[in-house]
UniProtKB/TrEMBL annotation:
Transmembrane segments: 43-63
Pathway terms, separated by semicolons: Porphyrin-containing compound metabolism; protoheme biosynthesis
Region listing for Disordered, in residue ranges: 403-425
Species this protein is from: Thiothrix caldifontis
One GO term describing the cellular component: plasma membrane
Subcellular location: Cell inner membrane
Function: Involved in a late step of protoheme IX synthesis.
Biased composition (Polar residues): 403-413
Pfam family, one: HemY_N
Gene3D superfamilies noted in UniProt: Tetratricopeptide repeat domain
Protein name (Swiss-Prot/TrEMBL): HemY protein
Top-rank taxon: Bacteria
GO process annotations (BP): heme metabolic process; porphyrin-containing compound biosynthetic process
Membrane topology type: Multi-pass membrane protein
Amino acid sequence: MMFYLIVLLILIALIVWMGQLVLSNPGIATITWGVWSFEMKTATLAALVLLACVSFYLLVSLLRHGFGMRRSFSRFRAARLGSKANRALTQGLIQLTEGHWDKAEKLLVDHAPYSDTPLLNYLAAARAAHMREAYERRDELLKQAIESDSKANVAVGVSQAEMQFGSGQLEQAHATLVRLRDLSPKHPYVLKLLAKVLYRQENWDALLGLLPDLAKQNLLKNDDMSKVQGATLKAMFQHYAKAGQTDKLQAMWKKLPALIRENHEAILLYAKALHTAGDDLACNSFISSILNKRWDDGLADLYGRIQHHSLGNTIQQAEKWQLSQPENNPALLLLLARLYNQQKLWGMAKSYYEASLNQAPSREGYLELAELLETMKEPENAQRCYRMGLRYCIRSEGEKLNLTPTQRPQVNPQTPPALTPYNGL
């Protein structure tokens, strides 16, 4: 402000000085233009020049003010439309939430050009079109969303894949997610959605290739992803197991990330696959290596079902595990019962079956013990075991198992009847 005041004072001083100079030196000024010639006093000429400068300044100021008003009006109009668009966005989202999808789409699309966030308008409008199953219109609105913000390719693509997956358009969702993965290979939600799509498609080969990336992103701890992992491994293991391709089964296991190979469910599935493939020797070695490190009831259960080439050594190993486990571990007691049963030491097997069932009743345990008691010619105890097993299957309530002692010496028959494999009640 002080600067402008000083400039104004200087201009006034200059004007006064020039005025005094002109008045103190009167004279005639002649202006010649072609054949025309004008004469006037110097003071008059100075006044005309000054008037012309002032007039020019006023004209320029007026023009600037006019254009400024036009810009101000444009800004005012844009602000008003923007405010209206923001209100329309809020109302559109409310209509979308309430299920009035036609109204929501119209509100959002009509005001998108004036919105501060047109991307949100188009995304919400696409969601409204999706909800009313207008899938072509949805994809058109998503295309407009990308045009409104070229940096939002991944965000728009994820929304599109989500909606395609939700509407059962699995092939389209797959194609969208593959394209997104090219744009952003490490995007965790893209990987998660792709895994879900492949799971629904039962595309186990592709899912198997995706498991390492899911493990790196630490996504397999999620319940849904654990389900995907389990289904993938089960399908692939069963494929090789049924074909008896143990070599491919083992090669596949070695290629899996360490995080998956340490997973309890994956370990159990692999062990069962080795057993199904008929390679009980490899299954025995694998389960032993795991149980030597940490105890697992599921593996112990399977270990008691497989065929062992050296039962004496296997029983010795199980007895070593017994030293490191609680005395009444029902899974370990059941394992020993099955091993002694395979070795035809039925008295020992009977004792371990009884001890295991009194700790943790099980359908398989009751059935196996009942069949063993029939082999041992103890029909009353066998019938009691059958009845208790049946009650347990119906009521899921265990009972104290007290077998009637027999005074007859137990003689193992030369050719005992084979025990019927248990496949579940």
